[in-house]
Amino acid sequence: GEQVEQLPSILRVQEGSSASINCSYEDSASNYFPWYKQEPGENPKLIIDIRSNMERKQIQELIVLLDKKAKRFSLHITDTQPGDSAMYFCAASDNRIFFGDGTQLVVKP
Amino acid sequence: AQTIHQWPVAEIKAVGSPLSLGCTIKGKSSPNLYWYWQATGGTLQQLFYSITVGQVESVVQLNLSASRPKDDQFILSTEKLLLSHSGFYLCAWSLGGNSNERLFFGHGTKLSVL
Known about the structure:
The structure holds two protein chains of two kinds.
Chain A: E1 4-7, E2 10-14, E3 19-25, E4 32-38, E5 45-51, E6 56-59, E7 62-67, E8 72-77, E9 86-93, E10 97-99, E11 103-108
Parallel strand pairs in A: 2-11
Antiparallel strand pairs in A: 1-3, 3-8, 4-5, 4-9, 6-7, 7-8, 9-10, 9-11
Chain B: E1 3-7, E2 10-13, E3 19-26, E4 32-38, E5 44-52, E6 55-58, E7 65-70, E8 73-78, E9 87-94, E10 104-105, E11 109-113
Parallel strand pairs in B: 2-11
Antiparallel strand pairs in B: 1-3, 3-8, 4-5, 4-9, 5-6, 7-8, 9-10, 9-11
C-alpha cells in the first residue's frame, strides 16, 4: 500500500515566524492530499486539502504545495501563533487514506 | 447535518477481558467507515474500513475485529484485550464511492488496559 513519510517529527518555531512540514508519498495514483490538525485530547480535524489537479492552495495563513513529479507535498503556516501548536498529520489518498507519522508543532511566544 | 457518535468515551479494562467500541453516523447514508488507533502522541494507524453493510476490510492485524451490522453502525471488538491495545480509538467516516473526500472523525475512545 501507500507509504507516506512526514518530516520533521518535532518543529519548534518562534511566534510570528513560518513553519513548514514536508511529506512524500510513493503511489503515483494518489490524488487527494489532506492535512489534519490534532490538539491534545481532541480528534483530528481537516484544516486544508489539495487535489492532484492543483499545485498550490491557500486558506488564510495555511499554504499547501503539491509537486506530483517529485511526489511531495508540504504545509506552510505563515505568521504562526501559539494556537497553532498541535500535532499535524499529512495524508495521501487514492481510494484509501494513508497518514504520515505526524509533526508536533510548538510555537513559542 | 451529519453527526458521528462514539461510545464509550473512555474505558479502563483488564488484560484478557473483552472489549466492544461503537460508532454511529447519522445524517449520511452509505458512508465509508473507518477505525483508527492512535498510541499516545503517535500516528494514526488505520485498523479497518468498510464501504458497505456487512463488509469489513482489515488493514492491520492487532487481535481486533470489526463489524458493520447496520449502514450507520461500526463496531470494534475483541474477546481478549492485550496491554498493547491501550490507546486512542477513532472512528471516522467519508463519503461513499470512489471519490476521495475528507475524513470526519469522532471524538474517540480512550482505552487503558491494565
